[in-house]
Design goal:
Blueprint: H1 3-12, E1 29-31, H2 38-49, E2 54-58, E3 67-73, E4 76-82, E5 88-92, E6 106-108, E7 113-115, E8 122-124, E9 129-131, H3 145-148, E10 152-158, E11 161-165, H4 173-176, H5 180-185, E12 193-202, H6 206-211, H7 219-222, E13 240-244, E14 250-254, H8 264-278, H9 284-292, H10 303-318, E15 335-339, E16 343-348, E17 351-360, E18 363-375, E19 390-391, H11 402-417, E20 425-427, H12 434-447
Parallel strand pairs: 12-19
Antiparallel strand pairs: 1-20, 2-11, 3-4, 3-6, 4-5, 5-10, 7-8, 8-9, 10-11, 12-18, 13-14, 14-15, 15-16, 16-17, 17-18
Helix pairs in contact: 1-12, 8-9
Domain Rieske: 53-164
Keywords: 2Fe-2S, Iron, Iron-sulfur, Metal-binding, Oxidoreductase
Cofactor: Fe cation
Amino acid sequence: MTAIDDDLGAATGVPGRGGVPFPMRDRLHVPRERYFDRGFYELEKRSLWSRTWQMACRLEEIPQPHDFVEYEICGRSLLLVRQPDRSVKALHNACRHRATQLEKGAGRLAGGQIVCPFHGWRWNADGTNSFVYGASGFAPECLRPDDLRLRECRAEVWGGCVWINLDPDASPLREALHPVADLLESIAVGNWQVRWWKEVVLHANWKLAQEAFMEGYHVPQTHPQLAGGLSVEDFPVDQNRYDAFDNGHSSFGRKLAGERYTSIETLILGGQLLSDGQDAMTLERDLTVFEGFRNKIQPGDDVGAAAAEALRDHAKGAGIPWPEGLEDSPLFFGGEVFVFPNLFFLPQYNNCLSYRIRPHQDDPEWCRFEVWSLTTYPATELRPRAEQLGRFAKDDSEHWGLIPMQDFSNIERQQAGLHTVGFEETRLATEWENAIGNMHVELDRRLARD
């Protein structure tokens, strides 16, 4: 048995296999069936999505007591409800009478009550029953208070988000987020708030859709406008550092960070391409700051350090929170943090691009792909409740910038290619794509638990 087999055996609990269909034989090859096989998908539903911590909503979606939002995953519906004490409860979205879904989408509980649209039964925001219409017609054993209470699942708040786990015996959230929680806290993940939030539905497995963002290897070919005029042959493939962590998490960032900016023009041009291409990570606010010190840069100056100093000074003057040492983070000038199983943070400066990807309509070959542009606002600025702008087609250039449209196109072509006769498995680079293998090994470990 090879060292890789030993590693996989430790991950799954059964050497090399773990009872998982189409298992990972090593970290370099992913069987194609993992992206479309119905049996594999059903195992994911049972052993992953029902038993893992997952981001259910951002706190800005439910800012006030009695605000609610629905979270759906693999046919299950939950209501995230802000409580009067500002805590959050996750309630299973089914009437205790005849299973009617109680709320859809997002909104506010009128009078602080959850009301069944079928027969008018009601519940308080904490899930306790407050009214049964025609109660005199029911046997006492049908109206026991504990039986009528809406069922809860575990919910915890971290990083400006509400996380849920359908498994009552799951380990604490913080343990599940190790070690990326510390990494994200170092760049003040809890300070980010929603600028905009959109969604696209892609004809691709949820895992395939997210693997594109676990590496920067695709940039020169997929996003040539970001390659600085270099061809694929000349673009430095080893410019990023890739780290695969326990629990399936991973991260990558520039090895040279801000030092790669050889001139103020390079900094501004790169920022403008990001701003125009996706309206996230680098914002017009940042470009304005950079333009403000364009003529102050002298030959030999450290452009990255000057940019960080200017951004920090602007933030402090505008009342925008700026944590101590933020500009020293290896993620300050860009990078990515993947939080298993399906959440991404792509920070830059005091902003972040974020993705959440999950199965769609009980079909292993379709996924919901949500995109957030996040930034840090002045502490005194009152922000409106965060609402999704809508679900837009993958080629809708009015609602998507060039960068995401380029990614969406590749993702669907990958899914189609998986069905090509003679293609058996993907082949991963040992460094640039190590996060993908790491995610799949962790997935096998989770699937082999039963």
